[in-house]
Amino acid sequence: MSEIIRIAVQKSGRLSEDSLNLIRECGIxxxxxxxxxxxxxxxxxxxxxxxxDDDIPGYVADGVADIGIIGENVLVETNxxxxxxxxLGFSRCRLSLAIPRGEDYTHLTDLQGxxxxxxxxxxxxxxxxxxxxxxxxHEISGSVEIAPSIGLTDAICDIVSSGSTLMSNxxxxxxxxxxxxxxxxxHSQLSDVRTQLLNKLIFRIKSVQTAQNNKYIxxxxxxxxxxxxxxxxxxxxxxxxxxxxxxxxxxxxxVIKENDFWEIIDSLREAGxxxxxxxxxxxxxx
Length: 286
Ligand code: PRT
Ligand code: ZN
Hints:
five-stranded mixed sheet, six-stranded mixed sheet, binds zinc ion, single chain, alpha/beta
């Protein structure tokens, strides 16, 4: 049998859906029916392993899986010898220190000698020692946010996304100690064939990510406005300009960053652009 690449993804949780969507957008088809622990891709030499996220760095380090998708927080906390290959931009969150809302807080030194509950003892203790704070770290595996209200600790260090969990537990965020997003990790010594497969996958991921950040824009303009509009559009190369059936008018096509679009929309309209269409791009190869 020819070599395949084994890809570890979270079985079910906050990373699963976006991880699987990204893989599908890369054109890789597979079946992940409920309860499945393994699945082979039908059109790419890959096999998927569906695992708990905390176990993924260890499996990749041991070579049971070749690559995996996990939160950077888990990568740093587990401290396994794997390579961070590419940032994936989803499941963004932060690891923060929080204290009861009614407590005063002015500086990190306020945590000197305090008890802090967390599921991230490594990241927390590195942060505290870098900042010369001695605190008593209580490692707990879940429901960290209730630790102060039951009298276990004075503060917590936990993942925050919207902040609503902190708020509903009477806590306030006082320091962000780490920012995280989903990342692609790999075993440190992949065979040549698997390295080639990984490179193929990275190429596809980058094409999908670039496409997501860009939009295709089409607009109509009178011929005498074309030069001005061209100067406003920050295109990939130079815009495509096609004459319209109506005399004196043309259609201008270009690719712009989604964020730039909102910045330039008013100037485009003032310059005479009409019938502006902005459409998603599926893949983009630069
Ligand atoms: O079962 P398994 O072990 O695989 O999953 P898990 O329960 O350990 O992890 P899961 O699925 O909850 O999270 C997977 C990864 O998603 C994390 O390691 C982070 O990288 C990322 N992520 C992004 C988050 C959040 N956002 C998040 N909000 N992980 C956890 N949370 C939790 C947080 O622990 C807290 O309880 O959500 C709560 C806070 O959310 P807000 O929106 O109320 O602030
Ligand atoms: Zn987990």
